[in-house]
Amino acid sequence: MMPGRLNWSGRMVCFAGIVWREALRFAKQRERFLAALVRPLVWLFIFAAGFRSVLGVSIVEPYETYVLYEVYVAPGLCAMIQLFNGMQSSLSMVYDRETGAMRTLLVSPYPRWFLLTAKLMAGVAVSIAQVYAFLLIAYFWEIQPPLIGYLTVLPALILSGMMLGAMGLFLSSAIRQLENFAGVMNFVIFPMFFASSALYPLWRMEESSLLLYEICRLNPFTYSVELIRYALYGQLNWTALAVVVGVTVLFLCAAIYAYDPSKGLIGRKGKR
Amino acid sequence: MTASDKPALRIAGVSHAFGKTQALNDVSLDVVAGRFTALLGVNGAGKTTLFSLITRLYDNISGTIEVSGHDVRREPGPALAQMGVVFQSRSLDMSLTIRQNMRYHAALHGIGRREARRRGDAALERVGLLDRADAKVAALSGGQVRRAEIARALLHDPKLLLLDEATVGLDVQSRRDVLAAVRGLVAEQDVGVLWATHLFDEIEPQDDVVMLHRGSVLARDTAATLAADGTLSDAFLALTGAAPSELVA
Questions:
Q1: Could you read off the pLDDT of A134-166 as tens digits, one per residue?
Q2: Which end of chain B is more exposed for a tag (fewer CB within 10 A), N or C?
Q3: Dihedral sign (CA A234, A235, A236, A239)
């Protein structure tokens, strides 16, 4: 054997290979890219346009003036792209596990935490490409954050993508069968999206229901949205940053634990 | 004993249970480099569980599993680096070409693009699929997919090749091709092969055979010795007390 391959340069080749495969799969699935793009655009063009007249958004940070509802909702839609992407890549991992492709990944000689993190980051890279495509279109819909915002939003997107991907990764270890994924849509994606600051500022929520407000405040997705919102305007929301990093670490550790052969959940589920 | 003298695979005293179900009971076996070892057992004998332990889908709690002298629990990296696996379920990416699958697999073993292409083409030529290298996996027949998976498993020059019921679902000709490809490797590349099967006609007299039944190893020897004057299936039936109908399950 060549022990040299197990060193860090080998790991980099491995990492690049995992990202390459994810990108290749994504490029081949044009419908997936379109679907990922159409979903937030529908929200932006139709939902937000309708709500514009109903819901005025007063000055909230980080905005310096009154903003149109479309402008308010855009960062939430960026986060939505990443939410769907994170859950979709967890779907693909459940699918991979059932077809045996996941086992191909797990018999790589590199440590399992490394493989799972690489897989996660590959998914994040794809989601970021989608977000930028969305922001580009949104620019012509008068959602025009400062130019520097397009740069400062990148680290926020990486972190938020990692958080949502890590949640998906953990879910993928817990879901036994592919069919259960429809349940994930209903019980994870929609509640997370609606009970957050993506569609309405939290103070409005507080006015209508205190309980719902508290739920929104406990929802990690809210912090994903706020991190992106502030970053898109060149600012840093420290609370959001802390929550996103904390939740990422928590779920990533849980996922790595779940996939660990000696402790994990997959080994306890019996014969396959 | 030098590293090269060590068996490609050594399993000693491995037991495994799922809850109250004892899947493996004190299993020991060796796979010697350059030998074809058949792991023979009916469905449910514990073959797939054993494969899952060797490939570290889950850990062995008791006993030891060594690949070329590397304990899979203490040195999982070097152990996995020496192992090529063909799983029971199809595991190539159907939407990609064979060559793209090869490149991905090579990367998982830290082998860069150029080297992957060279090795991949050599491995594909060996299994007679080089002319199909740029075909999508979805366009291949069942036997071709299997051979492509074998080529992929060889890409990183493993000392041990594991195949879990590799001929399931294949027609007679494809089964023969797959088996011939694997036997060719054993002869020419000094690879140790562990071939899990429930089909007696895949085993030749000179092969090492490990009979696994309800999680326990009943016998380990060459097929010729086990069969003695009769056939291997008679010997298996005598040892297990199983009804002949179980063998075709």
A1: 999 999 988 999 999 999 999 999 999 999 999
A2: N
A3: negative
Question: Domain residues of chain B, as ranges?
Answer: 3-247
Whole domain around residue A217: which residue ranges? 19-262
* Cβ contact B96–A104 (<8 Å): no
Nearest alpha-carbon partner for A83 in A2, A17, A162, A176: A162
Residues of A in contact with B90 (CB under 8 A): 99-100
In a domain, A10, yes or no: no
Indicate which of B58, B115, B165 best probes the interface with A, i.e. most A CBs within 10 Å of its own CB. Answer: B58
Q: Is residue A122 part of a domain?
A: yes
Comparing B61 with A56, which gets the higher pLDDT?
A: B61
**Tens-digit pLDDT profile for residues B16-53:** 988 888 899 999 999 999 999 999 998 889 998 999 89
DSSP bridge partners of B219: B211
Beta strands in A91-233 (DSSP E): none
For residue B30, give the 3-state DSSP assignment. strand
CATH 1.10.510.10 matches B3-247 = no
pTM exceeds cut of 0.95: no
| B80: contact with A, CB 8 A cutoff | yes
Domain count, chain A: 1
